[in-house]
Structure formats: C-alpha cells, structure tokens
Design brief:
Elements (H helix, E strand, L loop, with lengths): L26 E5 L6 E5 L12 E5 L1 E3 L3 E6 L5 E9 L4 E7 L9 E4 L4 E8 L6 E6 L4 H8 L25 E4 L11 H9 L3 E7 L22 E5 L1 H12 L4 E4 H11 L9 E5 L14 E5 L6 H9 L2 H13 L10 E4 L1
C-alpha cells in the first residue's frame, strides 16, 4: 500500500490556527464504519452514542514546555532545542536547529547557565540528538522558567493561554505534543458522561513529535515508527476488563490512547497493568483487539494517523468522510473539529 493512497487536498484556510472559545463547541463528523454513512453533529452529541456500561479511555499525558532557546559554547547564534523523549538521568532525545551547530560534544547553555547540556551523540538516520542536561533543582520547574509550549509548525498564530493546548484531564508531564482528540472535552461534559453510566479511565502515553513526522517511504510498510513511553495502572485495567466482560464497549479518545490499548491488550482483548515503550504501527489490515469506538481529530495527509483510522474503518470510508469534511469546511488538525468512528 502506497503512502499516496492516503493523500487528500486540504485548503490552507481550513487549518485551525486557534482553539474555539468553548472546547466542546466544535463540530463532530460521525462515521458509521458498518454502513459507511456520515452524519454532521456537534461535539456535545458524542454522549448520545455512548451506552450505560461503556468506558471512555483517555490519555492523561501533559505537554511540557519543551522548546528551549540557548547558545552553544563560544557562539552567539541562538540554538533551538526541542525535547522529545526522556531517557532518564538527564538524557533526552532532542531535535535541534540549526543542526550543524550541535555536533557531538557541543556544550549548550540556557538561561545564563541555569541549565547546561552536552550533545552526546547524533542519530545518523533522523538527525535527532541525544543531549545530557545538568541543573540544580527540579528539571520541570526549570523548564517552566526557560521553556515554551512546542506548538505544531502549522499553527502560526500565538496561543494566549497555554492551557488550551492541554486537555482538562492532563496530569502526567512528559509530552512534546498534546493528545489533541481530548482537547474537545470539558469537565462538565465528562461529568455528564460519567453520570450516564460510562466509566472514565486513563492511560498515559507521552506523545513525541514522531507522531507528526511525515512518512517518507513510498511503501508504508517500509516506514519505521518512533517509540513512545506508556503506562496503564491497575484501576484502568480493571475498568476496561470489566467493561469487556459485561458486554460494554471501549471508547478510545485519540490515536495515542488507541495505540496504548492495542499495545497492551492480548489476543482476547484483555489488558493488565503495564509500562513500556511502544512503536506499534497500525495501518489497513490490522485487526483491532480491544478498541470498539474511536474519537479523533482530522489528521495530516499521508500521515501514520490517517493510516491508523483507515485501519479502524476502511480507507475508502475515511477518504469519503474527509472529502465531506473539506466540502463542509470543517476545521483541521490540533485546534480543529472532531471525528467519531463507531
């Protein structure tokens, strides 16, 4: 299957540059994967499709201020460092710009020395840097002082309130990008969903920018997925297993929650408390083990996210739904409208 099979033409004016005033006021395109029929709703209507005994699984990872501006030792040219993945003991996988200024051994300084770092290695495949940071105190507190929110490159307008790039249930810091399907939920809507008899459950998957990295291989099976760290606790595992056992449906909020669930579930759709790294690549032909319904955003053409939702429905259904979304001028990407596949 070719990556061009997942291309669609998207007018630039449909790329949302800012969030709506109310999170849950976005539109909702509903795709019935059994019939292929499409409905046009509002996000608050999502509750009407959920039934007593279902569970809603969300990714509670929180975006860190992962964009740092610093300088290389002996130079005045600014160096941009974007934190991607925490490997422990101060070692992070990072993107740097300009890359030629951050060769192996380069020493970096941020905030007049409040934070220093050394480039330990350069990945020859993707150019990512492994950088060791040194600091006194708590790293996340230093990031709060020196870092900024790493908005996707297609968002060119300033975000006045950084919390609008966090879900209302974000809890565990570690992501370089938001699990954006959850941006539509409000605390009030979640309370209504819970009051209806739907269990709320949370996993953590720290989103790396590899999620948005374009697929370069013409044959999608030649694409190498990035790895992301995930965890599921005993409470969430119990909720999901009880839901399945009692005939309820599992709703995944976003591709990150979906990838976490499909990584952990066994062939019988049973999960257990677990942490680890996942590089699962879901594309058409994949047999889902546990996710019954999916709430997601509108994704970039030819992206691994397009491939995932085309595995959950069919490629033809998804491409038709996206054509309708473009024709009806839905808002796309991180701050855009929502899609539900059931």
């Amino acid at each position: 299957m070719k990556k061009s099979d997942f291309y669609f033409d998207l007018p630039e004016h449909l790329i949302a540059q800012h969030p709506l005033e109310k999170r849950d006021s976005s539109r909702l395109l509903v795709l019935d994967r059994k019939s292929g029929e499409v409905e046009h709703k509002h996000f608050t209507d999502v509750i009407d499709y959920m039934e007593v005994g279902d569970c809603l699984v969300m990714n509670n990872s929180r975006v860190i201020p992962a964009r740092l501006m610093g300088q290389a030792e002996g130079r005045t040219t600014p160096i941009e460092v974007l934190l991607l993945t925490d490997h422990g003991d101060g070692l992070w996988e990072c993107l740097t710009r300009p890359g030629r200024k951050t060769r192996e051994g380069t020493k970096l300084s941020f905030g007049d020395g409040l934070l220093t770092a050394t480039v330990e290695s350069v990945n020859p495949t993707d150019g990512n840097r492994m950088i060791r940071f040194k600091y006194d105190g708590i790293f996340l507190e230093i990031l709060d002082k020196l870092g900024s929110m790493p908005l996707p490159p297609y968002i060119r307008e300033r975000l006045d309130d950084p919390e609008r790039y966090q879900t209302v249930y974000s809890k565990t810091p570690g992501s370089a990008a938001a699990p954006t399907a959850g941006l539509h939920f409000t605390k009030e809507l979640l309370k209504k969903i819970e009051d209806k008899g739907i269990k709320l459950a949370f996993v953590t998957l720290h989103v790396g920018l590899g999620t948005f990295r374009p697929v370069k291989a013409d044959e999608i099976t030649d694409h190498i997925m990035h790895s992301e760290w995930y965890t599921m606790d005993a409470e969430t595992a119990q909720i999901i297993n009880d839901t399945k056992k009692n005939g309820g449906k599992v709703w995944a909020v976003g591709t990150t929650a979906t990838r976490t669930l499909e990584t952990i579930a066994d062939e019988n759709g049973v999960v257990e408390p677990k942490s680890g790294w996942t590089d699962i690549f879901i594309y058409p032909g994949y047999k889902f083990k546990i996710v019954d319904h999916l709430i997601t955003n509108f994704h970039l053409p030819e992206s691994t996210l397009m491939m995932l939702i085309s595995a959950f429905a069919t490629r033809e259904q998804v491409m038709n739904a996206y054509k309708q979304a473009v024709d009806n001028e839905y808002r796309f990407f991180s701050f855009g409208d929502s899609m539900m596949i059931y």
